[in-house]
Amino acid sequence: MAAIASAELYGPMVPAPFRVVARRQDTADTWTLLLEGPAPLPFRPGQFTMLGAAGCGEVPISISGDPDDPSRLVHTVRAVGAATAAICAAEPGRALGVRGPFGRPWPIEEIEGADVVIAAGGIGLAPLRPAIVRLLACRERYGRIVVLYGGRDPAQLLYPGELPQWGAEVTVDTAGRGWRGRVGVVTKLIDRATFDPASAVVLTCGPEVMMRFAVEALLRRGVTADRAYVSMERNMQCGIGHCGHCQLGPTLVCRDGPVYTWEELEPWLAIREL
Amino acid sequence: MQSIADLTAATPALAALAPRHLELIAGCGQMAHFRADEPLFRVGEPAGRFYVIRRGSVALELAVPQHEPVTIETLHDGELLGWSWLFEPHRWMFDAHALEDTSAIEFDGACLRGKCESDHELGYQLMRRFAAVLTARLQATRLQLLDVYGGHRVR
Fold first, then answer.
1. Can you tell me the distance from the alpha carbon of A116 to that of A65, in angstroms, rounded to the nearest whole number?
2. What pLDDT, on a 0 to 100 scale, did the predictor assign at position B152?
3. Where are the beta strands (DSSP E) in chain A?
4. Does the structure show a pLDDT above 50 at B153?
5. Low-confidence winner among A45-59, A117-131, A242-256 (lowest mean pLDDT)
6. Which candidate, B142, B150, B107, places its Cα nearest to that of B13?
7. Whose CB among A40, A224, A270, B125 lies 3.0–4.6 Å from A70's, allowing a Cys bridge?
């Protein structure tokens, strides 16, 4: 029998019960949860689910697992509110509600043959992890794969065990004397990275200010706006383009995003009220 | 072996200087080498020089009383280190030490200031390039001050 996604099992508006099978603390406020559901949940890198803890609400969380292993749903979640705090506190055995996967993914298949520059900031590395895993699994299909990652300080870096395997260039905004790596903003990494601007495709995710500065640095290097992809975050509620909470210009982030090209997005980001 | 002028010309921040100016600048430079953890300068000391890092990396630090020093920025191959030589009172504002074995070109600030005074075109060209570095560092510092990763993301 073919795998059935939870969305097909219960419909896009009804959460499927996924049980926490493992939980790992990544930083002081961020946890990675490994979940198993009633059926595998195929997804494409960059997609998200609506993840909920009973009685505490539901939030959009990007999937951060291996897209070639849909039997396990992996989410890296930062506790910043009631719902995310309850999700992060979910011990193994507890059930969480999952709807999805939703959203427009990273264009992994469409960019074969190109140099790929991944520019991540903070927890923005989580939505890019499936893309990195997929790119490296099909390494021969791409040119250079450059992973650039900026964080607040060394203790806030995600996936420290995987960063060297990805060949990631890492920088932090501030550090103590024990840190032997780079200190400075992530845009400095972009200025020094080796890639072919004429063909490179950029995937970036992080705080919106960081993405804006990162894309501007990439445009200065010669990357064009139609090849710079960003993952946006807005107040998503339904996840399927019905409620309108996540409207951004003429688009709904849950349905038309969260991944956009900079070319699509730039006119709307210039409007401060949005 | 490359001359100081050749090495200076290959520095991105000092690119496209006229050969005459490169020779003048190179005349104030010499090679310097630092072992890992060796200090380059300390806050408050006379700032009579600046560096172009050839190979290695250097941490700029601020000593915080009762706490371990905070690394503000690291500088790497091809980057300029130090501008206190340009401005009164010519004192270092931060500590700097090598994070690994590091080679650099060390330029004598008084020597260069003297040449800039007598050749204002050299002074203008050098100031333009240092202003670009200062602007980039200022923008980076503003971005760091925003503490964008410490905000309220929901992911």
1. 20
2. 47
3. 16-25, 30-36, 48-53, 57-62, 73-78, 95-102, 116-121, 145-151, 169-172, 175-176, 182-183, 201-205, 228-231, 247-248, 251-252, 259-261
4. no
5. A242-256
6. B107
7. A40
Burial class (CB in 10 A: 0-12, 13-18, 19+), B109: buried
Measured at the CA of A189, the angle between CA A188 and CA A190, to 5 degrees, comes to 90
Nearest CA in chain B to A234: B154
Quick: pLDDT tens for A245-265. Answer: 888 888 888 888 899 999 998
Compute the distance between CA of residue A54 and CA of residue A31 in angstroms, rounded to an integer: 18
- ipTM confidence score: 0.87
Is B59 near chain A, with CB under 8 Å?
yes
- Cα angle value B14/B15/B18 (rounded, 5°): 95
From chain A, pick out residues whose CB is under 8 angstroms from the CB of B140. Answer: 184-185, 187-188
Torsion of CA A228, A229, A231, A236, to 10 degrees: 120
pTM, two decimals, is: 0.90
Distance from C-alpha of A223 to C-alpha of A215, rounded to nearest angstrom = 9
Per residue in B68-111, pLDDT (tens digit) is 889 999 999 999 999 899 999 999 999 999 999 999 999 999 99
Joined together, the tokens standing for residue B81 give 């280190």
Q: Is the four-CA dihedral A117, A120, A124, A126 of positive or negative sign? A: positive
Of A85, A74, A80, A29, nearest to A52 by C-alpha is: A85
* B108 and B49 Cβ atoms separated by less than 8 Å: yes
Residue B155: per-residue pLDDT: 41
Nearest CA in chain B to A61: B155
Region B46-62: mean pLDDT is 95
| Tokens standing for residue B125 | 């060209």
* A98 Rama class: left (phi>0) / alpha (psi -120 to 50) / beta: beta
B76 inside 8 A of chain A by CB? yes
Q: Which of B61, B146, B153 sits opposite A122 (nearest CB)?
A: B153
Is the pLDDT confidence value at A166 over 70?
Answer: yes
